[in-house]
Amino acid sequence: VKTGMHIGGSGAFAAIGAVDSPIIRDARTNLPMIPGSSLKGKMRSLLAKEFNERVVEPNEDHERITRLFGSSKKGNIKRLIVSDMFMNNKEQLYNQGIQSFTEVKFENSISRATAVVNPRQIERVVRGSVFKLDLIYELEEEQEFLEDMETLAEAMKLLQYDYLGGNGSRGYGKIQFQDIYTDAVVGHVDNTLLEKCNLILNEAVKE
After folding, report:
1. What does each of the 207 residues of the chain score in pLDDT, given as a tens digit?
2. What is the 3-state secondary structure (H, E, C) of 67-88?
3. What pTM does this model have?
4. How many CA atoms lie within 13 A of 41 on its CB side?
5. Distance separating alpha carbons of residues 180 and 186, to the nearest angstrom
6. What is the largest CA-CA distance in the chain?
């Protein structure tokens, strides 16, 4: 996370004076988390802007998008599984003197007509936070696999230029992918193919 990131949780039961817009947290540790659906949805929407010739429903996305991310059409198989992401560098942040893994940013909106100020408090994950991501891909055909990895790499590159979560136009949610590696978790995959995949993904996201 390169700038404060806000992926909203529920504030339905917040006490008076609490943060107006809290982040989503892991129920077990109370630490910030990133839902896999948030990452997957944002990457897909960025690809849709690039590959689709016009605005369409997800089921009508370009073939390269639906082949990788799936659709609800009968017989369509989602080849990519995106995990939820949990904070992976708590101790490192502690050692840097950071006592809280979130910050509260105070923002105001001012009515142009009445000049009435509407203050609000938005909770953000602090910059420098690291989240571990697991992506599982079901490999069926070698050539399609490499093309799918190029599609995934494009989505990751686009996301680094964009933002994850809310309020990106205000500077929130800039992220960087790092330390990418691939491995065969079930069955055998030729090492040459894995090396090509590594190269495609790492070249796309390097700064």
Report:
1. 999 999 986 554 444 444 568 999 999 999 999 999 999 999 999 999 999 999 888 888 999 999 999 888 766 777 899 999 999 999 999 999 998 999 998 877 777 788 777 777 899 999 999 999 999 999 988 889 999 999 999 999 999 999 999 989 989 999 999 999 999 999 899 999 999 999 999 999 987
2. HHHCCCCCCCCCCEEECCEEEC
3. 0.87
4. 10
5. 19
6. 67
